[in-house]
Amino acid sequence: MADETEPVTSMAAGDKMVDKVVERLLDRADASGAALLGEGGLLTEITKAVLERVLEAEMSEHLG
Description:
This protein is mainly alpha-helical. The chain has two helices and no strands. The radius of gyration is 15 Å and the shape is flat. The relative contact order is 0.10.
């Protein structure tokens, strides 16, 4: 799987980007009344999405 994002050039830039994404996700969850934990919760869904992307990338790398 090709990486569709631009590489982060410094940890500070990466930290700022992550902070912005987290803030936006929390704002949306708060506005919609979504749970943060538990089945269907924000953290659960983010963890699931990240793990699926990592496993997909690993499989693509392994199979070529």
